[in-house]
Fold each of these.
Amino acid sequence: MKNILVTGGLGFIGSHTVVELHHRGYNPIIVDNLSNSQEEVLNRLKKITGTQFTFLNIDLVDFDKTRQIFSDQIIDGVIHFAAYKAVGESVEKPLDYYENNLGSLINLLKLSQEFRVSNFIFSSSCTVYGQPDRLPVDESFPKLPAESPYGKTKQVCEEIIEDYCKSNPDFKAISLRYFNPTGAHESALIGELPLGIPNNLVPFITQTAAGIREKLNVFGGDYNTPDGTCIRDYIHVVDLANAHIAALEHAEKMDTNYDMFNVGTGKGNSVLEVIQSFEKVTGISLNYEIVDRRPGDIEKIYADTKKVNSILGWKAERDLDNMMKTAWEWQKSLSIKE
Ligand code: UFG
């Protein structure tokens, strides 16, 4: 059984990936410093899979402690999720973002070199494209200047990995550029756990429906889109998790040693379409209002998925209604717990 180090494995995407790795016969080893996750997720993973996974509470910026992981375990591959990800916070605290997101990556690459771990999957983002001048956006599009230090860390991390791959032909790495991950596991035992007031649309919708927030502000109704609201490519977190396994399998056999893939559905939906889908599947009428634009938002983006479909053999299977349904089931399970 192959051991896969999953950094940030108790987080939103990481925890769903742990489940799918387990289903596919891998042994995930979870590293997480609980900076934006809860240890309770480990119990939830056990409920879903019947397995008690190895969990190491380690900050990957600490080289010596991270080195200990590699010397204690046999690691066959790394999926690196752990990173700070709040766009607004990154503007306030750029040094924290550079230190954490770049420092942890560099430590993991150095240790992969030392311990000859050759498969590495990196969590990147469609944010590396900025606002592309035509759509859908494919992997050959240029990276435009990042809007935030967070976005810049994703661009720079991709470049660090690419440079390192050039220096070490035995090392195989893939960057997955996520579009907008949402939804939750169908068991409703794991899902997104935003700290404080959510920045992202779907947690804000579900918290509003649950009565935790009074009203959803829809940021901007005057964009150049059919209904005036921004368009994104929402991708179910379980589909996204499965893309990591497809990437791991591909990394082992690929001819080049670095590649990157969009992970989205290829379909754009507006904010109002997301709300309509939520209202349809839940029967709840959402309290929302169209307000001013949010600074830094791009108007529309969705993925060209030809490359990921053909080379990784991966395709999104779950639609927007499924994302809304599972996100709502997850939200309801939280309310019951409280
Ligand atoms: N939105 C609202 N109201 C809210 C929250 C969001 O109308 O309360 C809108 C946004 O304006 C945007 C859409 O919903 O049009 C999606 O917003 P999210 O914040 O959920 O997602 P973003 O596309 O802005 O952010 C995502 C990732 C970031 C990444 C960014 C790059 O979550 O990590 O893409 O564009 F940096």
Amino acid sequence: MRKSLRPRIPTALLLVGVAVLLSSCGWSLWDSPMTTVRPKSGFGRMTNEIFMLISWWTLGIGIAVEAGLLWVCYRYRERPGQPIPKQVHGHALLEVSWTIAFAVILLIFAVPTISVIFETQAAPPPTALRVDVSGRQWWWEFKYPDLKIVTANELHLPAGQTISFNLHAPDVIHSFWMPQLGGKRDVVPGRVNRITLAPDGPGEFPGQCAEYCGMSHANMRFRVIVHDKAGFDEWVANQQKPALTPTHPLAQKGLEVFSQNACVGCHTIAGVSGGALGPNLTHFGSRKTMGANLMAATPENVAKWIENPGHMKPGALMPDLGMRGEQTQALAAYLLSLK
Ligand code: CUA
């Protein structure tokens, strides 16, 4: 009795495991903010169609092969008193047929795949909005050369307009990926890769570096905010304004701290400093998150970041400048006042 139960326990566990795995896959496939199967741009739809086509075909092939295997197992199973079936070594017709059949299937996959590769690599129309993306350890810089805007980790786009992203890598290889909108495309030092797409409608979407690029690769995120026309124009007008002069005494003290410390060597605040190693902070206070979408941009987090960047984000290249207490609180107040 006990003996016959034994193999059933691992089988039952296996089935439960598969069910849990399938249900979690189902969840992440459809509902996760990182889903690629509910695309929000033409680029996303084209790549998703290829994915679906190949998935259904391979599912069909998998079922056919498994059914054939099961049939052979059943048909030629060992039965009492039956002699061993005729032994076959090699069958030219069968082998040639299945080789040709699979070559044809691969060819069927290749036609739409290659056509989508060409379509998504096409030159952008002259009316496209240009955005120069720089992937850096471990944050994203977004420059809008025609609008004279430089920002970081928050990508603002107008709905319905074609955007031409030019991807630059000043340090190591990264990969630019906005799961719901499109990508991923490698960002490679020494060359400029491109993505052209038009977001369907307003919304907020996560973005993420998709190529292992060092200690904080997983923390190299960004937010994509797609606006309607009026919302985008409003954002542009605000970003084009010079940095605000602080009015609150604590923020005024923060400006002093910023100007008199090494901050100016790495960060640009228009009209205050011109560093280019770290994110541009001219409108830092207009961003909801900090540290490449790692945490909310609150006075506490900004102060903690300045006191120990490596603790907030492992490997962060910003050094601890030795500022503490009132200095960091003032600096946080100043940076957050830069709306
Ligand atoms: Cu950049 Cu991973």
